[in-house]
Amino acid sequence: MTAGDERIIRTSPQRLSRDVWGAGRAIQKADVAEVHVDEIAAPDHVAQALGLGDGALVVRRSRTYKIDGQPVQMATSYLPHDLVHGTPITQADTGPGGTCARLAELGHAPAHFAEDVVVRPSTIDESDQLDLRLRESIIHITRTARDAAGRVVEINEMVLHPQLYRLRYHFDA
Predict the structure, then answer these.
(1) What is the mean pLDDT of residues 72-77?
(2) Residue 21 falls within a domain, yes or no?
(3) Model confidence over 41-68: pLDDT tens digits?
């Protein structure tokens, strides 16, 4: 990490623009240390957000991001199984532009994002993964991506190391 009070600046909404992922660039600047992809029964809150029934399958993509070897963020995406099963989204390396670009190829390009940001105590797993004290506060962001028709195509739950990030938002008045 950098010295002093410099933090990772997470700029929104520019980082999620079609200009970024549509050009094959990653929306995350940190190195991905670990990617795990599997198919699971959707947790209740995810099934509800995706408009799925109880026990519906989703593809879960879990990532841990590091900078200079230090874990800085965990991210878990949930995508509708019927939409992404058998596509590059189910691979560890989704290719240029990541999941957003692959969704666009499927005719479900993200057209609208909403993020809910909360600060809460870390869980045991989050503390271990981010090298924090147990119950130390973390930044928890839940991002919902919808396609142009309004279908929710991804729920992404991110846990950010609280001392390493600055959230920056730009928007027109």
Answers:
(1) 94
(2) yes
(3) 999 999 999 999 998 999 999 999 888 8
Q: ω into residue 13 within 30 of 0, thus cis? A: yes
Residue 58 lies in a domain: yes
CB-based burial label for 81 (10 Å; 0-12, 13-18, 19+): buried
Number of domain units in the chain: 1
Domain that holds residue 51: 8-169
Q: Which residue has the tokens 């609280």?
A: 162
**Residue in the structure block whose two tokens are 């957003």:** 100
**CA 75 to each of CA 66, 148, 167: distance values in angstroms, whole numbers, following the listed order:** 12, 24, 16
Identify the CA nearest to 83 among candidates 167, 2, 151: 151
Residue 2: inside a domain: no
**Which whole number is the average pLDDT over 111-122?**
95
- The answer as to whether 109 is a domain residue is yes
Could you tell me the CA-to-CA distances from 36 to 28, 93, 150 in Å, in that order?
17, 10, 28
